[in-house]
């Protein structure tokens, strides 16, 4: 063997090699001890932001003070082993620091990463920041200059981004306009920038999910399944070069053309009609989980598009792989197994919610399992080696679409009385799901999953034109849901049973028994994800703007901090630098608060203060005196709810999409006079308001304005009546 002069050894490379070898055998070595639960001596001596598979795999044991990947580590359990914050001292928590990284007209939903004292985080427009994790000071920022007109492809309002991946000295971000970028973690300089879109017969995509990094690859899917023609797929890119390693399609394309891989031939047998003309949906917009033990990637597949299977796939069957968990071999990109949670998805019951992997003892046998609470209201335990369904329990009483899951077939038993194609009606859960993507937290030792869910009903109906003619027209720009909208839907609702009450809860759920150890009702219907710790505390941000710490034994609140924004749709993480443990989340502004989206960080004895927010004008200003015809108002109602409501919210029609874009009923006369320039010419495109020149005519825009003005007048009258009532009551 050739001898090596120790003086000439590349110590960084040598340490990485030795560390990898040692960790693979479970051996802790001296230079990788962690004295402060954050930066290791290894990291200090070498490139401190270098993250590889071994480091992520062993982070629980070796460096719990860092948060190296989206779900904390590859198991995505989101369970902190930090011990400084306990039930006994959590009432001493306060704000450590906050920093604004986005405007109020976006959703702040990312999970920050912290690596050796540096926080890497993205805002809604996919801008990446490197911050000092102790005080929020900016180290660098990279703006991918997202084309903001892509907001029109989004299902759910203003831009949002669920975070970044850190791997091999780079930070990866997937952008709202469908690109994947690699950025140097030290300098913030771009390494490469690729387009993830495949033009062949498909519409353009958004990406809102966080990329995952493992086994030398970067994995990403897309979103915007409800806009135009969308066909989902996941791509594995070489982490160093950005070259495509493999691509796995999630719904089949035109069967007259060759199938991309054998799984698509299998899937095509479960579809009916000419589904490929609609795209089919099945976008993987969120959850991707790497399993280093089985060399697998688990893909959480989204919903069908359009939503009603009668339109999308008439005469079809299960419509694979919609609303499915798919296991794919990381090396080959070929499928190991699949389990479909909602066959033939008819309700937007996506399975793209966060997934967690772990170990559970069942019937005296230790099983490697995957855990998920998808939208449909049932909690699943799936054997991650075989795809066998082990348990399926309802995690909410708010389920009407199905009665239970048949454990022999693994299929939900649909309620024959809940068929909206024949009888438009309120159905639970809503399209927002009983549990959406907001992250869960798994205590593997206790066998408890902490998560928040809500019972919200949605009124489901078929598209009016489809009901009358049997023909459905896709919208290339704008939502193509396939359900009733505007006045048509409102009239159906008026003749329907009352809407069920909306409720929200956070709880500790035993997925084996299907029982809650405890459950607490929440004030807000829409809230953020949770994080539990080994010391017995649970962190959550609520839609009310409350940051709440609870005792994991009983769910009782220990500490509450009221922020000026909202924590709706956000996630929680915890890290430690030096001797201080921090808890971090993102905060949104909202319609009523002119406050930019921010990173918000707490610690024991924190004394920082949030900035004072300006309250946005909520009174309806003077409106145009124009008289509008009933025909124009009705046409504007339909157009508004098909083209505007996904960002600006439904008016008079229930909407289960969380919205923070401005309420258009509050437009002043100056804005009304500029509507043509704003909507058709795109003069505010770089502020997130795209142009609709290719979609709307002048007459159609005027019809939308007629509807908005009419609704504004009604709201103004309501406000005046309330003031009069209050004045009368005060005088009395």
Describe it for me?
- This protein has a domain at 630-731: Cytochrome c-like domain (Cytochrome Bc1 Complex, Chain D, domain 2), CATH 1.10.760.
- A hairpin with a 4-residue loop joins strand 30 and strand 31 (448-455).
- Residues 1-46 have low confidence and may be disordered.
- It is globular.
- The protein is an alpha+beta fold and 732 residues long.
- The chain has a 5-stranded mixed sheet with strand order 1-35-36-37-38, with no helix packed on it. Strands 2-42-40-39 form a 4-stranded antiparallel sheet, with no helix packed on it. A 4-stranded antiparallel sheet has the order 4-5-6-7, with no helix packed on it.
- Helix 9 (630-643) packs across helix 13.
- Give the CATH class of the domain at 630-731: Mainly Alpha
Class by SSE composition: alpha+beta
CATH topology of the domain at 630-731, anyone? Cytochrome Bc1 Complex, Chain D, domain 2
CATH evolutionary superfamily of the domain at 630-731: Cytochrome c-like domain
Number of helices: 13
Overall, the morphology is: globular
Percent helix: 10-25%
Q: Low-confidence parts, pLDDT < 50 over ≥5 residues?
A: 1-46
Instruction: Classify the beta-strand content into a percent band.
Output: 25-35%
Number of strand elements: 43
- CATH architecture title of the domain at 630-731: Orthogonal Bundle
**Overall mean pLDDT score?**
88
Euclidean distance between termini CA atoms: 100 Å
The spatial strand order of the largest sheet comes to 1-35-36-37-38
User: How does the major sheet shape up?
Assistant: 5 strands, mixed
Radius of gyration: 25 Å
């Amino acid at each position: 063997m050739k001898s090596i002069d120790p003086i000439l050894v590349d110590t960084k490379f040598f340490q990485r090699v030795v560390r990898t070898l040692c960790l693979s055998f479970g051996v802790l070595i001296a230079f990788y001890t962690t004295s402060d639960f954050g930066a290791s001596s290894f990291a200090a001596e070498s490139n401190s932001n270098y993250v590889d598979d071994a480091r992520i795999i062993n982070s629980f044991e070796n460096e719990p003070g860092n948060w190296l990947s989206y779900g904390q580590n590859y198991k995505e359990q989101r369970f902190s082993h930090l011990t400084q914050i306990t039930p006994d001292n959590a009432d001493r928590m306060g704000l450590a620091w906050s920093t604004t990284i986005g405007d109020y007209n976006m959703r702040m939903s990312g999970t920050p990463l912290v690596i050796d004292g540096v926080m890497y985080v993205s805002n809604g427009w996919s801008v990446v920041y490197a911050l000092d994790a102790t005080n929020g000071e900016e180290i660098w920022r990279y703006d991918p200059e997202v084309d903001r007109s892509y907001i029109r492809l989004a299902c759910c309002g203003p831009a949002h981004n669920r975070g970044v991946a850190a791997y091999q000295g780079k930070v990866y971000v997937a952008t709202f306009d469908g690109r994947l970028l690699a950025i140097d973690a030290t300098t913030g300089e771009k390494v490469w920038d690729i387009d993830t879109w495949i033009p062949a017969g498909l519409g353009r995509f958004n990406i809102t999910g966080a990329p995952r990094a493992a086994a030398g690859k970067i994995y990403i899917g897309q979103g915007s399944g409800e806009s135009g023609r969308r066909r989902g797929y996941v791509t594995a890119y070489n982490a160093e070069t950005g070259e495509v390693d493999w691509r796995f399609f999630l719904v089949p394309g035109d069967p007259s053309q060759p199938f991309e891989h054998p799984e698509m031939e299998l899937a095509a047998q479960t579809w009916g009609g000419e589904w490929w003309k609609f795209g089919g949906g099945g976008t993987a917009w969120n959850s991707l989980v790497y399993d280093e033990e089985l060399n697998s990637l688990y893909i959480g597949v989204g919903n069908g598009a359009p939503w009603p299977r009668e339109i999308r796939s008439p005469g079809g069957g299960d419509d694979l792989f919609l609303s499915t968990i798919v296991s794919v071999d990381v090396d080959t990109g070929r499928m190991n197994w699949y389990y479909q949670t909602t066959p033939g998805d008819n309700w937007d019951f996506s399975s793209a919610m966060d997934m967690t992997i772990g170990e559970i003892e069942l019937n005296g046998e230790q099983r490697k399992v995957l855990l998920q609470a998808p939208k449909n209201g049932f909690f699943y335990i799936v054997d991650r080696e075989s795809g066998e369904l082990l348990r399926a329990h309802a995690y909410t009483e708010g389920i009407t679409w199905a009665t239970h899951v048949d454990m022999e077939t693994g299929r939900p038993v649909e309620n024959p009385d809940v068929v909206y194609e024949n009888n438009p009606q309120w159905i639970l859960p809503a399209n927002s799901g009983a549990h959406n993507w907001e992250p869960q937290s798994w205590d593997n030792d206790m066998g408890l999953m902490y998560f928040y869910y809500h019972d919200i009903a949605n009124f489901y109906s078929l598209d009016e034109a489809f009901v009358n003619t049997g023909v459905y027209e896709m919208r290339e720009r704008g939502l193509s849901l396939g359900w009733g909208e505007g006045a048509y839907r409102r009239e159906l609702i008026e003749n329907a049973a009352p809407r069920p009450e909306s409720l929200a809860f956070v709880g500790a759920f035993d997925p084996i028994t299907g029982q809650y150890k405890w459950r607490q009702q929440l004030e807000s219907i829409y809230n953020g994800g949770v994080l539990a710790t080994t010391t017995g505390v649970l962190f959550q941000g609520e839609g009310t703007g409350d940051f709440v710490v609870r005792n994991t034994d009983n769910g009782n609140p220990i500490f509450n901090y009221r922020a000026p924004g909202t924590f709706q749709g956000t996630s929680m993480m915890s890290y430690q630098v030096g001797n201080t443990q921090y808890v971090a989340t993102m905060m949104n502004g909202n319609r009523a608060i002119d406050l930019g989206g921010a990173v918000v960080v707490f610690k024991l004895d924190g004394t920082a203060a949030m900035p004072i927010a300006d309250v946005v004008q909520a009174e309806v200003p003077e409106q145009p005196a124009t008289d509008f015809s009933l025909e124009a108002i009705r046409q504007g109602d339909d157009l508004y709810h098909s083209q505007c409501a996904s960002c600006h919210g439904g008016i008079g029609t229930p909407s289960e999409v969380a919205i923070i874009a401005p309420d258009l009923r509050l437009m002043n006369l100056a804005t009304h006079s500029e509507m043509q320039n704003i909507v058709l010419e795109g003069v505010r495109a770089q502020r997130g308001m795209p142009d609709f020149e290719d979609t709307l005519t002048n007459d159609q825009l005027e019809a939308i304005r007629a509807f908005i003005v009419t609704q504004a007048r009604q709201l103004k009258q309501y406000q005046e009546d309330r003031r009069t009532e209050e004045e009368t009551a005060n005088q009395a």
